[in-house]
Design a protein that fits this description.
nine-stranded mixed sheet; 290 residues; D-amino Acid Aminotransferase, Chain A, domain 1; 2 domains; alpha+beta; globular; 26% helix; seven-stranded antiparallel sheet
């Protein structure tokens, strides 16, 4: 399948207060964010003209930047207007939206006190994260060799670009082995998440998810937990050992891109797309359209 590279597409991208032609939205090669990963971002979805959990994403964008010591020069209210402006300019009512902030090229070196924080917002049409046919039987995961770092070794509660380097490495490795995505453990050996989605398991009707003490507590994750509680589904948040994988009947992952995606295989363990997964997926699909 032919895919148009992102830097060769048409449309409009907002950067630092200006709506630019898509192909003119560029940064200098000597930007601090490129060399030292001083960058944060968000991933959001618009459904039928409404960005799901938009304000929560804008607030998290600010929080991520604060953790890295960056000041976003646009308020949450500003960002809310900008995101909708970008979607309107690109004639989108269903879209994926990517706000990103990075330190510029005013200073080069580990120290970045003199740099300015630059902000851009892009939006494009994007369907399911995984192929539709895989959604019916569930995607396959393989345990990665790379692990999520401890909270005192990396800014784990920030959606920081640098944290995703090991995700890309992990996903490439498992794709080469014929799997769809990576299952990442944390620094202690507990199950953490997929490469870019939170992890849920079902055992005897109880929904179980890892404690987010060294990885991002996703907005979709929080939404699914709230739905489960409203539906009266028994729920546990705790550390999960890989040795427990054979005991689970259902597995699924959540994220803005992944939404609610069933898992059919992890390493040599197999799962069905069961009733709890189906109920929560259906409830989530209804919620985003409200």
């Amino acid at each position: 399948m032919s895919v148009i590279p992102f830097d060769e597409r048409d449309g409009f991208i907002w950067i630092n207060g200006n709506m630019l032609e898509w192909r003119d939205a560029k940064i200098h090669v000597l930007s601090h964010g490129l060399h030292y990963a001083s960058s944060v971002f968000e991933g959001e979805r618009m459904y039928n003209g409404k960005i799901f959990k938009s304000r929560e994403h804008s607030e998290r964008f600010h929080k991520s930047a604060d953790i890295l010591g960056m000041r976003i020069p646009y308020s949450v209210d500003d960002l809310e207007e900008i995101k909708y402006e970008v979607c309107k300019k690109n004639n989108l009512d269903s879209a994926y939206i990517r706000p990103v902030a990075w330190r510029g090229g005013e200073q080069m070196g580990v120290s970045a006190k003199l740099t300015k924080t630059h902000v851009a917002v892009a939006a494009w049409s994007w369907g399911k994260y995984f192929d539709e046919e895989k959604m019916d039987k569930g995607i396959s995961l393989k345990t990665s060799l790379w692990r999520r770092p401890a909270a005192n070794t990396a800014p784990t509660q920030s959606k920081a670009a640098g944290l995703y380097m090991i995700c890309t490495m992990s996903k490439h490795a498992v794709e080469d082995a014929g799997f769809d995505d990576a299952l990442m453990l944390d620094y202690r050996g507990y199950i953490a998440e997929a490469s870019a989605a939170n992890f849920f398991a079902v055992k005897d009707g109880t929904l179980i998810t890892p404690t987010p003490d060294c990885f991002l507590n996703g907005i979709t994750r929080q939404t699914v937990i709230s739905l489960a509680k409203d539906m009266g589904i028994p729920f546990e948040e705790r550390h999960i050992k890989p040795e427990e994988l054979p005991d689970f009947q259902e597995i699924f992952v959540t994220g803005t891109a992944a939404e609610v995606t069933a898992v059919g295989q992890i390493d040599d363990h197999y799962y069905t797309v069961g009733p709890v997964t189906k109920k929560l997926r259906s409830a989530y699909e209804k919620l985003v359209l409200v």
